[in-house]
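hey
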């Protein structure tokens, strides 16, 4: 059930429901700022209370209101007047917008808390990788377990259609129980997502003698692949490689060099891609338009006869126009928003790395 239907069912105006989701997202975003700041420094995310990073003065409750406190204080600490990082309101605002988008997609359904947790984890990983070029095990390992448990429980709570790959797998393994088929999908997704990155890094290291892929990216894609399934994991990697290549070329052009071997925070682009191509933001109708839905069809990610017929029916005959134009506009909107956002976060990471001397060239 989407929020568009909720408005009619529970008689709550849609803007109010969206505002509630946004407020919740901003609050979670404020907590994610604590996670982003403390986990790389191996500090507790529970104690002590939030404090100014410069003067260490504990923050008052009214100075810790998401987004608003930053605006009221004009981006400076109330006590020492040192600047507050722009990252804090950006994380809060971004999480609020993501929660609204997730709620609009899921509505009041058992899938909603699972998708919100996934989006929150990816947001934390993106910003940690941008600042520290690490993807902490304390997030990725529990994330993998969370993805597996979600694949077991959610098909029974919300139906197998919650996962892009599960209907096709059920037709391929009709004799197996639902939970085991869903776990097969999680395993395939994890191997395609994390395994493909590990294999590319292993081959490159053997050929060139340098490390090409951090294990943090691999473990992150194990989590993403297990949660989303193998087809959306492939699209996530494609988005990450595409946007990461644009960022890498931009850095080389700015620096006037042609050395391709630079240490870049690839997790930024993988995290943005996982949000873009998750079931939250990338409705499966668009994927089914371009590819047949069954696992046995190896050309799932290529224009098949089924896919071309679907496109022809939409463009020429007008069949299913509403089902395809909505995800097309969704895809276009998030490409316009997420790709520039990823490049912006990447630019901040590069500038920070250059200041600290951690932008490594081999």
């Amino acid at each position: 059930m989407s929020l568009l239907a909720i408005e009619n069912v529970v008689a709550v105006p849609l803007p109010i429901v969206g505002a509630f989701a946004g407020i919740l997202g901003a609050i979670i975003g404020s907590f994610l700022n604590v996670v982003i700041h403390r986990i790389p420094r191996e500090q507790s995310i529970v104690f002590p209370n939030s404090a100014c990073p410069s003067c260490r003065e504990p923050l008052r409750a009214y100075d810790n209101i998401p987004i608003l406190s930053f605006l009221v204080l004009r981006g400076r600490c109330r006590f020492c007047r040192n600047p507050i990082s722009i990252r804090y309101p950006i994380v809060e605002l971004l999480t609020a917008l993501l929660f609204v988008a997730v709620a609009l997609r899921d509505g009041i359904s058992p899938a909603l808390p699972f998708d919100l947790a996934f989006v929150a984890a990816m947001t934390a990983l993106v910003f940690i990788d941008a600042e520290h070029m690490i993807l902490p095990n304390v997030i990725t390992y529990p994330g993998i377990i969370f993805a597996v448990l979600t694949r077991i429980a959610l098909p029974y709570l919300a139906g197998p259609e919650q996962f892009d790959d599960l209907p096709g797998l059920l037709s391929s393994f009709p004799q197996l129980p639902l939970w085991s088929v869903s776990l097969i999908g999680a395993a395939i997704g994890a191997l395609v997502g994390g395994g493909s990155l590990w294999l590319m890094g292993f081959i490159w290291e053997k050929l060139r003698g340098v490390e090409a892929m951090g294990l943090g990216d691999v473990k992150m894609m194990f989590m993403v692949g297990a949660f989303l399934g193998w087809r959306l994991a492939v699209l996530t990697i494609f988005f990450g490689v595409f946007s990461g290549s644009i960022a890498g070329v931009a850095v080389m052009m700015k620096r006037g060099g042609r050395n391709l071997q630079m240490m870049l925070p690839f997790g930024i682009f993988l995290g943005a891609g996982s949000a873009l191509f998750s079931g939250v933001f990338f409705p499966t109708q668009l994927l089914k338009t371009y590819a047949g839905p069954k696992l046995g069809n190896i050309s799932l990610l290529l224009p098949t006869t089924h896919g071309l017929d679907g496109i022809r029916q939409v463009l020429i005959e007008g069949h299913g126009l509403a089902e395809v134009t909505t995800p097309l506009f969704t895809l276009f909107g998030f490409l316009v928003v997420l790709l520039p956002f990823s490049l912006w976060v990447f630019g901040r990471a590069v500038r920070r790395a250059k200041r600290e001397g951690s932008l490594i060239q081999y």
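Residues 109-362 form one domain. The mean pLDDT is 76.
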